[in-house]
Amino acid sequence: MISKEENKIKIVPKIFFILWIKEIKENFSSSGLYILSGLFSFVMGGLFYNYISLTKDLTSGNLSTNVLRPLFGNMNFIFLFIAPIITMRSFIEERRNGTLDLLYLAGVNDTQVILAKFFSAFTVVVFMLLPTLLFPIILAASGHQDWGIVATSYLGTLLSVACYLSVGLFSSSASDNQIIAALLSFTILIVLMLLVVFAQASNNYLVAQMVSYLSVPFHFEGFVRGLVKSYNIVYYFSFVSVFLYLSQKTLEARKS
Amino acid sequence: MSNLVQVEHLSKYYHSHRALSDVNFSIEEGMIHGLLGPNGAGKSTLIKIICGLSSPGHGTIRIEGLPISEFQKRFPGQIGLLGERPPLYPNMRVIEYLEFVATIFRIDSSSIRSWIDEIIHELGIKEFLYQLNRNLSKGQAQRVGLAQALLPNPRLLVLDEPTSGLDPEMAMEFRHIIKKIRGKKTILFSGHILSEVEAIADDITILQKGTVIESGKLETLRHKFQTKAILEIVTTQLPQALVHEIQRTWDVEINVLRSNPNETKWRLKFKTAGDYRQPMAEFLIKHQLVALELKTIEPSLEEIFAGALGINTGKKTGNSEGVH
To answer: Which of A106, A150, B25, B287 could join B104 via S-S bond, C-beta 3.0 to 4.6 A?
Structure first.
């Protein structure tokens, strides 16, 4: 029945892409994703309508200040709740189904699994953001054509959400319960958010600056103003790398 | 035959808890090796370490002479594992899942289709090939699980209580499949149904509290644990006078298992081990009694297991009544 000759082993270098596609299929086969996306679009649409209504005259007001800035600020805040929901199942489901062991037996390493899950979750976020592209299009039709701020706002949102997702993946790798994983990542994110508040309360300028630098909103602020600085980018990439590295170490530790 | 797996002085601690202690045993190539032990004996820990899913604390595991880490680096996917719960992605269809498994196990894309087809045919998966994994029955899921374990054509197939939770018919079917691959694969089979392990295993390792208490060929263990010889005899009749004569000659315990006008089945339990068939046959001939059947009863795996663990099962063998 089983002959060794039949089983010709060939190296497949793109194992990450195979896992990424598998993760995307898993995510998009869940009705929960569509419910979450629908709710997100509904809330964002409501907020957009609200800010537009508050800006009485669409042609004369500063739409970047009155609409885009609060809209993206709120969007960023909403993702603070959504990101843990997207990532909470990641490793817990794999462990429960025994499929993580299947991947290890196939010679897949932790880094490949983590990156596939991270980029899949990121793809879900991009999918959720697609309907919001209507907002700048509507603004453009009303004469607001500052595409630069729109682009940097989206970039800032994506980078911030990447940070949230990395925290979510770390929590999922460290926990055996989805709810605990979501709560853990939410707690970490809230603490990181509140660092700005702590910094403002400090009398020492240097300490305040250092604490602020660790906070995600501190870096996001510049993006909605259309300012992209290299240290912001360095921060986001470092943040994501640290939490993905912690996820890898956690998975490794659980194997020992 | 050479050893495929060699476990030497393996110990594993979880903080202060000792999961495995100086475990030594080997698995011969092409054999089915049964792993037995009560709950918490360390079977699952041992299996995880053999599969490279958990690090060995102290000691070594060699597969084909290579340390496990080296073996997995050089031959990824050469250990197939099926546990009590098959590793299925619930939202994938069976065929999609098998193709995914074949891809991550790096099976040549030109032979994936034919290879999957062969396994599907052998394991009888065809009728639910397009069902979602989450909709499969326990038996179907276990068959798909076995398919994934066999897909990479592993050198070692590890089955950790694979029939647990299956109904008797499905468990029997599953054992039939295992018997079909006997000799073609080296299998490590962990189970708690002793009769099941007895039916398929060639060699046995018994674990207790993380320590190997017995390991070897099933036949060797049978002899080791045969402290009393037992003969089962079918004769046309069993006169009471003869019973007394046998008891006087050998000091044995005699039980009648079945009796009808045509034949009587009885069992002799001697005080010591040994082969009593020849003297008993001669004794029956001398007393002009026709023996329709005369055989030695070897201890069952249950008796070996109980003997190794020092458990008194209090089990009476067969449906018998004493004769005095």
So the answer is: A106
